[in-house]
Every structure is written in structure tokens, then in C-alpha cells.
Design goal:
heterodimer; A: 188 residues; alpha/beta; Rossmann fold; 2 domains; five-stranded parallel sheet; B: 120 residues; Immunoglobulin-like; six-stranded mixed sheet; globular
Chain lengths: 188, 120
């Protein structure tokens, strides 16, 4: 199968599957974020949808007139981008800093980052563990959630494709890795 | 309701590097457009992070609610349209009329042979 025809190609997953809140919609989360002083964390393990939810919340905040200042860290690149230093110097109340991967910063670097973002109107982060900021939502996954996503991406399951429950267990709830395995299955 | 169209001169076909792709774009939108732009680009599709290469663009001046314009782009030397198991490279032109999410895309093949390069 050609990559662009694979039902689990990454851009199709991103376009088709957005984070589904089990306890309210995005507006509810935005209201909760405001109640937390616009400083909060989206918490959850790898592949639970934290980044997707952060992007969706950023879109809603932008539509409400905030300027989004995205900062992205990963295990491959834990350094804060140079652009961040320049941007941090002129943050204001209409700016919301969205940091994806707060767990990549050491405790000291996190305190420094938070201090630099103090003038921003908000600071929304994703993290694998609680404690850096008050928890806005704890993202969780389940075999049923994975099965629903797989059905949306491939309504007619391919013969021999691993069942969602088995994938969920094998990848310990990491939906991103489970969907990548399904990509590989279809590519083979 | 908005309608956007991309009509390629001579109908859809494949191209070789250096050839010109041209035609006419038409749009009818509900609100006065602030901008109307046609972009020539390629993008990757498949596993992992998507890559996009913007090659050329034309911004149509003083766009009207109901309008049509002609366009032409000279295609570069690379990259060729390609498909393997992990990645595809897809060429496209895209008409974007703002405000609103009015987008129309036309995908095409560009390579030395005129066919998509395929590896298995």
C-alpha cells in the first residue's frame, strides 16, 4: 500500500481524530482554565492526547482574542528555542503561552520558564505528571476509545489486523504507538 | 454557501520538471473576501511528521465575492511525486479565499517520466 493511501497515515489521524473530553466540552475546559487563573496543566501519559487537546484549546483561546505563544519540547530536543527568549521579553496579558512537554524541563529550568512567562495572560502546559501547575484535566485512554478511533479511521478492518484490545495492552495505553503499529500493518 | 474551483488548462494530467501548470480559478463566497491566494506546494503523507514545501504563490488583487482569474506556475526540478511504504510526496495547488475556511485543492503528478515514482 502506498503511504498516501494508508488509513493510519499521520496527517489523516490528526485531521480526523481530535481529543474527546469525557467530562465536558472545550468550553467547559476553557471556563475551568479561567477559574485556575489561566495557568494549568494537561496531564497524562505518552500517547493520551495531551498535545491534541493543547492544540484544540489554543484554537479556542485564539478565537477569543488571545495570542498563542507555542513552545514545544520533546525527548529529542529539550532546549528552549531561541525565539522563546525573544518572545518572553515582550509577553502581555493577551498572550497565552502553550508549552508542550513541560516534563522535559528540570525543576530549576521549569521555575525559570515560569518566571519568564509571568507577564503572560496565561500559561497552559502538557506534562506527564502532576505538580507543575494545577491540573486542568488528566488525559486517560481505554481499549474502547482506541477501538472507536480505529473504526473511524478504517471502518472495514483489514484481515489479520490486531484487535484494539490487544494493541492497547501491548502499547500500555499509548494510542499514538498503537496507531503507528496499525500503519505498519497496513504498509506491510 | 461557498464554491471554489480549479480548472487546469487541457484537463488534469501529469507534468515534468520545468513544465508550466496553468488554468483558471473560480470562486463564489458569501462575504467580501479579504484575500484570495493560489499556492503551489508539495507535502509528505505517511508515517511521522508531515513536511510541506511552499514553492510559489500568487495573491489575486481586489478579489470579489464572485470572481475568476487565470494562473500559471513553472514547476521546479524536484522533488518528484513519490510513493513508498513510509512516505509519499504529493504535489498540489491550493486556492484559499479568506475569511472563512474556503479551500480547494488540486493534486497532480510531477516527475521526470510523468508518472509517480513508486517503490515497494
Amino acid at each position: 500500500m502506498k503511504a498516501r493511501e494508508n488509513p493510519f497515515r499521520s496527517e489523516r489521524v490528526i485531521e480526523t481524530i481530535r481529543y474527546t473530553c469525557t467530562d465536558g466540552d472545550l468550553d467547559t475546559l476553557i471556563a475551568k482554565l479561567a477559574a485556575l487563573g489561566n495557568r494549568a496543566a494537561i496531564v497524562g501519559p505518552h500517547g493520551a492526547g495531551k498535545t491534541t487537546l493543547l492544540e484544540d484549546l489554543a484554537c479556542v483561546l485564539e478565537a477569543r482574542g488571545f495570542r498563542i505563544v507555542p513552545v514545544r519540547l520533546s525527548t529529542d530536543d529539550r532546549r528552549l528555542p531561541r525565539a522563546w527568549s525573544r518572545r518572553a521579553a515582550c509577553l502581555g496579558p493577551r498572550d497565552i503561552v502553550c508549552l508542550d512537554g513541560a516534563e522535559q524541563l528540570s525543576a530549576l529550568r521549569w521555575l525559570w520558564f515560569r518566571w519568564r512567562a509571568r507577564r503572560a495572560g496565561g500559561l497552559l502546559v502538557t506534562s506527564h505528571s502532576q505538580g507543575r501547575l494545577p491540573t486542568l484535566i488528566a488525559c486517560t485512554t481505554s481499549p474502547d476509545l482506541l477501538e472507536g478511533i480505529v473504526r473511524r479511521l478504517a471502518p472495514s478492518p483489514a484481515a489479520g489486523a490486531p484487535p484494539a484490545g490487544e494493541l492497547f495492552r501491548r502499547h500500555r495505553g499509548n494510542l499514538r504507538d498503537a496507531l503507528r503499529e496499525l500503519y505498519d500493518f497496513h504498509a506491510a | 454557501m461557498s464554491t471554489l474551483r480549479i480548472d487546469i488548462s487541457g484537463g488534469p494530467r501529469s507534468y515534468k520538471p520545468g513544465e508550466t501548470i496553468g488554468g483558471r480559478v473560480t470562486w463564489q463566497v458569501d462575504r467580501d473576501p479579504k484575500s484570495a491566494e493560489l499556492r503551489l506546494f508539495w507535502y509528505t503523507s505517511g508515517k511521522g511528521t508531515q513536511d510541506v514545501g511552499n514553492v510559489d504563490a500568487v495573491a489575486f488583487e481586489t478579489p470579489q465575492t464572485h470572481d475568476d482569474r487565470t494562473f500559471s506556475f513553472v514547476l521546479p526540478r524536484e522533488p518528484f511525486s513519490y510513493s513508498g511504504k513510509l512516505i509519499s510526496i504529493v504535489w498540489a495547488i491550493e486556492l484559499i479565499v479568506e475569511p472563512g475556511s474556503n479551500v480547494e485543492r488540486h493534486e497532480f503528478v510531477m516527475s521526470g517520466s510523468g508518472s509517480e515514482v513508486v517503490t515497494t
